[in-house]
Amino acid sequence: MEKWLKESASILKPAESPADVQPSKKHLDAFLQKIAEREASQEIHFLNRKEIEAMILHFLSEQGMEGLDLITCLESKKIRSQEQGEGVIYGILNQLEAGGLLESRWRESGSRMVKTYHLTGKGGDFLNKHSSVLSPYQAILSAS
Questions:
Q1: Which candidate, 56, 137, 142, places its Cα nearest to that of 102?
Q2: Which pTM value belongs to this model?
Q3: From 57, 122, 127, 136, which residue has the greatest number of CB atoms within 10 Å?
């Protein structure tokens, strides 16, 4: 068998590596167009600190949430802070709580303790007073 493989090696066409195969211009253009369409449909909204604060208050006005659930909610709506990192959201939550706009409650979840954030009356008043900050994002909010 080994002898036959050596003798027929010159006859058989070597297998092409996927890296060696060049797509046609037509296929490459179609691929790039699909990527552009996908990116356009997944537009990310980078909000400044005041807009993020208002967005957090809005989502917490609907129901209390843990910090991680709030971050997941923001991510699902393609909302990001202009400042980087998840820690920014926790910093904002702490600031809003210190200002009396939110309150938090600890509860046991399985084997760990989690903090759930809730809007206070003062936070609801603040949100109503500053609702114009959220006007550009009505399409996002109506999908919530």
A1: 56
A2: 0.67
A3: 57
